[in-house]
Every structure is written in structure tokens, then in C-alpha cells.
Amino acid sequence: MFDTMILTKVIGGFCGALLVFLLGAWAAEELYHMGGGHGEEQQAYSIEVPETGGEEEAAEEGPTFMEAFEVADVGAGERVFGKCRACHNLEDGANAVGPHLYGVVGRDVGSVGGYSAYSGALSQVADVWTPENLNGFLEDPRGWATGTSMGFNGLPKVEDRANLIAYLDSVGG
């Protein structure tokens, strides 16, 4: 059946395996650092990198928000609104987890009647939901309005934000 000798062998096997593992890790670490002083040697070949290249590349990445907003596609914005639909409604006065977005473009921040769950962080950074303010908020809600209760991560693509704002602007008001 089961006696103490079998238990002793099992425990001894685990301890032996652990010892081999620890000794192997120690030996590998010693081999890796053999000779010591990694990082102290002079680099054999250095590649010169121009310092101003990053700014030019950042400018060439894509259109600015205003350029994207001028050519925004309302139909594409309606598809992007699918991400907002879980918490927001488009019907006037139909609040959900978040306030309704009917006529949000040009509306005062925090002014939806019947909705009282505003965090207060939004009214500290903007007075009116202009397309520029909506763009900043939709890009990174928690970064633009620190302390906001909106749990959305944001829309990284400027085209998606421009299309969504154009769609919201076309809906009501």
C-alpha cells in the first residue's frame, strides 16, 4: 500500500530535482557573466543617428485632426459609434450609463438635464464640446480630463475620431 518509505523517496526526488535546477541556474549565470564587466568595453562600431529626424517623421505620420475632420465620412462615423453604443444613446433625453449624445457637438460640457453622474473633471478642462475638445477627449479620455469617470480607452486613429465627431454633429442639433 502506501508507507513512509515511498513518501520519503518522493520528497527526496523533488528535493534532488530542485537542487539540480538551482545548481544549473547558478552555473548558467556564471557562464553568462564569465569575464565580467559587460557593458564596460568600448563599442566596436557606432551608428550615428541624426537628432532631428524624429520630428519630421512624426509630422509625416498622418493628417491633423482638422484635415481629417474636413473630409470626414459620416457613414464611417456611424460605424465607429458602435463602440460608444454600450454606454451612450443618441435619442434626446435618453441617458444610459453615460449622458445622451444627441446634439453633443456645440453643447455645454456637463449640461445634460436628468444626468447627474458627471465626475466634474470635464468641466475643469472645457466649457463647450467643440470638435477640437471632443477630439482630445476621444483620443485619451483619462489623459485629457484626469479624474473622469468614463472608462473608455480612447480612439487612437485621428480618422476614426474625425468620422465619429462628424457623425455626432449630423445627429441632432
UniProtKB/TrEMBL annotation:
The keyword Protease does not apply. GO terms for molecular function: electron transfer activity; heme binding; metal ion binding. The keyword Cell division does not apply. Residues 72-172 form the Cytochrome c domain. Keywords: Electron transport, Heme, Iron, Metal-binding, Transport. It comes from the Bacteria. SUPFAM superfamilies: Cytochrome c (SSF46626). Gene3D superfamilies: Cytochrome c-like domain. PROSITE patterns: CYTC (PS51007). PANTHER family: CYTOCHROME C (PTHR11961). This is Cytochrome c family protein. It comes from Palleronia pontilimi.
